[in-house]
């Protein structure tokens, strides 16, 4: 792997930034791809670009605004509130989003000569996204290889980690401060520790507190 190139699916959040550091540790060459789907906060794109620049990684932004047309959810429309109820996907759910992201990422990966695709999807904090499950990613990996007659390897370093373990991984990669201070997870568009009140901030903070107490 050390001599290969990898493409990281990158949003500038805690998870994908940890994945970016993981990729920089494991591959000779790394690029990132960020999807612009008219997110609630355009800031996400800027943060992804800024972090990529800072780590000397080439970032490609792909226009996925068609998702806005397909999925009127809280992530893409400013007039819908973010709600979460037990047993149901949060209202930020965009059906098939990860399927599309990984498919588009693989087309770009082949073009730039990257055999490896890295994504921060995670089954542990499974919030109802069926296309974030390990079995789906493995199945898609086979389909992508067949569709493009190419031997991609999709890596999911966070698949079996909880949020505290993701902080531990960032720390192992000597990226704890970087991830804590420079990433954007908050639904309200506040970098680092965020607004502290939205579901993303609460999940992130719980993981951080658990990790710091260990
Ligand atoms: Zn927040």
UniProtKB/TrEMBL annotation:
<keyword id="KW-0862">Zinc</keyword>
<comment type="subunit">
    <text>Homodimer.</text>
</comment>
<feature type="binding site">
    <location>
        <begin position="10"/>
        <end position="20"/>
    </location>
    <ligand>
        <name>ATP</name>
    </ligand>
</feature>
<feature type="binding site">
    <location>
        <position position="186"/>
    </location>
    <ligand>
        <name>Zn(2+)</name>
    </ligand>
</feature>
<dbReference type="GO" id="GO:0008270">
    <property type="term" value="F:zinc ion binding"/>
</dbReference>
<keyword id="KW-0067">ATP-binding</keyword>
<keyword id="KW-0479">Metal-binding</keyword>
<feature type="binding site">
    <location>
        <position position="198"/>
    </location>
    <ligand>
        <name>Zn(2+)</name>
    </ligand>
</feature>
<dbReference type="Pfam" id="PF06508">
    <property type="entry name" value="QueC"/>
</dbReference>
<keyword id="KW-0436">Ligase</keyword>
<dbReference type="GO" id="GO:0005524">
    <property type="term" value="F:ATP binding"/>
</dbReference>
<comment type="pathway">
    <text>Purine metabolism; 7-cyano-7-deazaguanine biosynthesis.</text>
</comment>
<protein>
    <recommendedName>
        <fullName>7-cyano-7-deazaguanine synthase</fullName>
        <ecNumber>6.3.4.20</ecNumber>
    </recommendedName>
</protein>
<dbReference type="GO" id="GO:0008616">
    <property type="term" value="P:tRNA queuosine(34) biosynthetic process"/>
</dbReference>
<feature type="binding site">
    <location>
        <position position="201"/>
    </location>
    <ligand>
        <name>Zn(2+)</name>
    </ligand>
</feature>
<comment type="function">
    <text>Catalyzes the ATP-dependent conversion of 7-carboxy-7-deazaguanine (CDG) to 7-cyano-7-deazaguanine (preQ(0)).</text>
</comment>
<comment type="similarity">
    <text>Belongs to the QueC family.</text>
</comment>
<dbReference type="InterPro" id="IPR018317">
    <property type="entry name" value="QueC"/>
</dbReference>
<keyword id="KW-0671">Queuosine biosynthesis</keyword>
<keyword id="KW-0547">Nucleotide-binding</keyword>
<dbReference type="GO" id="GO:0016879">
    <property type="term" value="F:ligase activity, forming carbon-nitrogen bonds"/>
</dbReference>
<feature type="binding site">
    <location>
        <position position="195"/>
    </location>
    <ligand>
        <name>Zn(2+)</name>
    </ligand>
</feature>
<dbReference type="InterPro" id="IPR014729">
    <property type="entry name" value="Rossmann-like_a/b/a_fold"/>
</dbReference>
